Amino acid sequence: MLTRKNHARGFTLIELLVSMALGLLVLGVAVQLYVSALNATWTVSQRATMQEDVRASANIMVKDLSMAGAGFPAPGGVIGLASGTGTSPAYGCDIVGACHLGVGNNAAINFPGKQLFAVIPGFGTGIVIPPNVTPSDTITVAYTDSAPLYLNCYNITSIPNANTVVFTMPVAPNAGCSSPPLPAYPPPALNSPAPLGLSAGDLVWFRNAGTTAIGEVTAAPVGANPYTVTFANADTMQLNQNAATSADLNQMLYTPGPPAVGLAPGPAYRIWLVTYYLDRDPVTATPRLMRQVSGHQPMPVAENVVGLNFSYDTYDQLGVLHTRVKTLAAWGALGANPNTMVQKINIENLTIRSPLQGTKGYQSLNLNTSISLRNLSWANNPWQ
Questions:
Q1: Residues 197-227: pLDDT tens digits?
Q2: What stretches of 40-186 adopt beta strand conformation (E)?
Q3: Less CB within 10 Å around the terminal CB: N or C of the chain?
């Protein structure tokens, strides 16, 4: 009888080790490919976030900077502020008394020469954010708010005291409503929710035949046509100074009884005073770009902004163009009022870093652009 034997044998130890080594090699390559793809996805995601942030920051900043001087007296865009006392009007503080500029984000900055310029450069007046070793810049611009409030459509009908002005919306539009054209009459009520109506922290520019004055609203309007608006003495910006001798509401407007002589209907305009600066989130310490409007509390525009620097293109009194002027000292050396000759604001450095830190540190993205000041340069061409 024949028998059949099955001959079977397993792997040798050497074969097993070789196969395991090959398997580990393949697995290692697969893991490396996965990690590389994951890192690439993370990098692309972080860069996309940075691009969105820098685009949003630039859009809102360019809109404000390009409006500098709109509605201001020409040429130059300069309005006198309260003077004649030892107290200088200052910006950077909000209506509740907190200040936001300077190295510690806790200081105010005096208006140069006690005047409101359409452009106020702030070279080195911001905080230092590593890896930078020099302070960041701030910038402040001012322009009139023709709409949507249309404050110039209101008449000043009474000035009960040095710190109170009564506005009345007339039944028919006054001459001030013709520019800009109203979409519908009447315009929003003064006690409408902000930003349509007036609110504490807003700046109001009064004009009459002989002088002007700017006051800070310190309380929401009271009443319903007429509206009583309060400009309390010693506001946080020190614009409402009853003891001042010029360019203040007391000297310009207040006379017992009817409005001051020469005060035409609709002489008031709201002014936007917009300041951009860097600070750190008080909870997370994340650097961010801030925007403060007049005396209101500042709001963040974008997070992870680590660099902010500006320069200016300006003519001197001889008609020579100087580009990339940065410091106030260099500007003053030109012998010209900066607002009467400035042509462009250059964003030299708007740097945003990635929200998260990778194995090689933060990624960063830098924006450079120039903004033409159409409301200043149109009247300031030295060859006109």
A1: 999 999 999 887 667 889 999 999 999 999 9
A2: 78-80, 90-91, 109-110, 115-117, 119-122, 138-145, 155-161, 164-168
A3: N
| Structural domain of 302 | 49-377
What's the whole-model pTM score? 0.85
Total of domains in the chain: 1
Burial label for 184, CB within 10 Å (0-12, 13-18, 19+), is: exposed
Q: What is the pLDDT of residues 328-373, one digit of tens each?
A: 667 666 655 555 567 889 999 898 888 777 666 777 888 888 998 8
Q: Which of 144, 140, 127 is nearest to 91 (CA)?
A: 140
Residue at 320 is within a domain: yes
In a domain, residue 17? The reply is no
Is 40 among the domain residues? no
- Helix, strand, coil shares of the chain as percentages rounded to 5? 20, 30, 45
Is residue 271 a part of any domain in this protein? yes
